[in-house]
Design goal:
CATH superfamily of chain B: MetI-like
CATH architecture of chain B: Orthogonal Bundle
Largest sheet of chain A: 6 strands, mixed
Distance between the termini of chain A: 63 Å
Helix content of chain B: over 70%
Structural class of chain A: alpha+beta
Largest interface: B-C, 93 and 92 residues
CATH topology of chain B: MetI-like fold
Chains: A alpha+beta, B mainly alpha, C mainly alpha
Number of helices of chain A: 20
Largest sheet of chain B: 2 strands, antiparallel
Shape of chain A: globular
Number of strands of chain B: 2
Shape of chain B: globular
Oligomer: heterotrimer
Helix content of chain A: 40-55%
Strand order of the largest sheet of chain B: 1-2
Amino acid sequence: MKLSRSVSRPLRRAALVALSGIVLAACAPGTASTTGTADKGSGTLKVWLYDEANRAPKEKVVAAAVADFKAAHPGSDVQVGYIPTDAGPRAEKMKGAFNDPASAPDVVEFGNTDLFGYVAAGGLADLTADLSGWAEGKDLPQDLRDTATVDGKAYGLPWWIAVRSLYYRTDVFTELGLTPPTSYDGLLDAAKKVRAGKPDLLGIAVGGKYTFGALPFVWANGGDLAAQQNGVYAATVNAAGAQAGVKAYTDLFADGICPAQRCADLTGGKTVEAFASGTAGMAILPNSSRSAVDAGAVKGKYAVVPLPGVAAGSIAPAFSGGNDLGIMKSSQHRSLAVDFLTTLGGKKHQLALFDAMGTLPTLASARAEVSARDPWLKPFTDTIAAGTKFVPKHPGWAKIDAQAVVPTMLQKVITGKADVGAATAEAATAMNAALGAK
Amino acid sequence: MPGPIVLLRRRVPAPVWLLLPAALVLVPLFGYPMYQLGLLSVLDFGQPQASGGVPATLAGLANYTQLLGDRQFWDVLLQTLVFAGGCVLATLAVGGALAVLLTRAGRRSRLFLMFAALGAWAAPAMTGSTVWMFLLDTNSGLVNEILGTTGHNWMYDKWPAFVIVGAVVVWHSFPFVMITLYAGIQAIPVSVLEAAKLDGASAFATARLVLLPMLRPLLVIVVIQSVIWDFKVFTQIYVMTTGGGIAGQNLVLNVYAYQQAFASSDYSLGAAIGVLMTLILLAVTALYIRALRRSGEEL
Amino acid sequence: MKPNRLANSLVVAAGLVTVFPLYWMVLSALKPDGELTSADPRPWTWAPTLDNFRDALGVSGFGRYFLNSLLVAVVVVLLSAGVAFLAAVALTRFRFRFRTTVLVMFLVAQMVPIEALTIPLFFLVRDLGTVAPGLGLSSLGSLMLVNLAFSLPFAIWMLRGFVAAVPESLEEAARLDGASRFTVLWRIVFPLVAPGLAATSVFSFITSWNDFVFAKTLILDTDHQTLPAALLVFFKPDENDWGGIMAASTLMTLPVLLFFVLVQRHLVSGLGGAVKD
């Protein structure tokens, strides 16, 4: 018995209508289910921290903090997970956390430049009240506190910082009768003399892709990438001060110092390698590069001074890089999370972290203790004391960083594809698009 | 009267049953995301929207006009077409030549090259690119050391950089072509080749008039696959030119998409670029298939 | 054909050029850190060390990641072989109205850049997880399913040629002898296509083993990570651990090479089948 044609056709049509209905209902793109914050008194806290290749020292510090936390909160536990440090994969994990609150942690470690994007995505909880009520919080310097504040609200606790200073070859300087530079002109002079005296060395290892190596020069000349007026950011990278800074940095890419061919596409990491392998007379490196440099050929043959500013004896403002601790908005254990955060971020464990990994504590007294213990850190703490600066505190910074606006600008000048005026104008346009955007 | 299952089997043609498993996997996991891709490209959808905090608004064709109006997009598109085209031709040439040589080489040298090629095919793209980046490093690379050109930056100029990255792409892709074509040649009956030799055909003529036509179906597959893969190259360019080269001179579309959209969670812009890339590839492949049809080949 | 001297030397030369980067990878994995970043690289080392391998294997969970990758790859290979085989039979042995359209759609499926599909896939898998617990986010099942979906189009295209190479007369003879359609497929077509299956399974294995995009999108916990994630630990923003990267890469490449050795006998004869179109 065959199904008659006249029955099957309306059946087919009905199926089609039903199908399109289902399809249209599934129309909207997926979004994360918004769950409110809860505040369960006990339970297991999920914590995400940055991974390291050699994780054992960090794990020990964290374990100590966990022990302290558990002592204060019997019946609760902490589950620590480590996420990749590299920007791409880490961004994926964080995206995953934002898009699926069920997989999100309670406490999370993140880069301080990531904060604004995360706040705009609505992922972080407001910690203003918790931090102002925290005893040790008063020890946090204002400029560091500002790096974690958006619209007057604090969203993170700076956990550790790293700043850059000038590493230089003591053996080369002694041989050529040079003294560590104290001004930009001195820096330029020393670099030229190093390369002139030792032609197979770079005067100073600088990179066209090294944004945070270039920014101190911009800031030292009174300029900045962008400025905020009435809560709105506008690019100022094409203003006089910034242009002078860009010129100061790109002038270091002369044949007599760091030839464009060799240096135009160096990243910060590559300058570390160049200095560590002994092919550069100077380099602008963070305190965290100490182990890498000591593992190279220049161990024992270098010293560090603060990166000089324009005027003699001045210090160029450094970028305060570092990581913050924050609490996800989707956390179901808010008070517990705050307690763990303040424990891990407190002085005791910040000092332990320094011992384990060489990262500088953010709390002022901890930092003083650490620099008293280890004189090697003096140039870095001096640089911090002279005042650090930050990138535009705007979610658009993520876009500016991803699109490599600053490296492109630097490279155009270095390779002669554009002069400083044209390159900075182009960069300003790109930045304004990112800053003015959603 | 036959039972319902037999009725069903008669009513639904056999190919549908055979295609069902594939459809069950592909329609939800492919079809649905692709539909979503088109949808995302006409919305204003970034991380704030994905997290559910901000509602998604309709952007219409704004993402597309932004892309098509961006001078850099067209530069990158042209570069990608030239780069991919060059890679495809080079891969075919190298793979094909080596395939022919393999047939004439001794057993041990043949096994050596085969395993070397398999190793190149198996190595993750990131590894191959990193190793070559090491070897070509300006200050401490082996190549510069051997040639005595320490300080020469191979990636400094645009087209030399493209050639070098292209060579690495070819390194990764020639094994597929070589092994496929070699196997194809092996499958040609010896009698055919001997007949050609008896007729006095030179090696070159044999290759052109006998091998090529018999290998044509394989060549079609190999060319289309190579075009698709080389157009979508990402890792080699990203790693070796550290994200697109000096001032972005070595950007190809996939890296451009990452830089402009995915890296900063601008999902709708990324979706728009994805749609455009698919359409462009479709156009290129359609032209190729039409050329084939005209020469009498059937798909 | 008698081996030709010139061909021999050219082939060996090509082999050396091809294998050199792999040699460098293993060499770098064995070099101590100081030598790796030195300004004078040498294509040998007098102080080989297993430290980098120790670091790589010491990455927390390396063994687990390895097993996860292996599990996903094996399942994908087996499933894609089966599903693609059936689909290839449908597309070669039958003529139906939308045959060319379906074929072209499988081609188009390979054209979409997968990065663009990650967000829709993320939400799809998340929703799938609420219906089928084994297939949600951070589950190996979802990774298997997604990798399967993305290796099918190529597998179907490749297998098409091999199925077409099996003479229909064989099938007809078997059918005349009373064999059911299923028996024909299993007993006659499948064995003859086996070499082609070996070829496509190699491809599916490589794609799934080296997959990074899907793993980083869908796997959010550390228990279910796959091997490429272990590689990431060595990439730090300013100072990459090159020794660790090379050691981890070597460890990643070895299983694929082993898989090759297992199927290589079938591989060459298999790929040749496609020419008899």
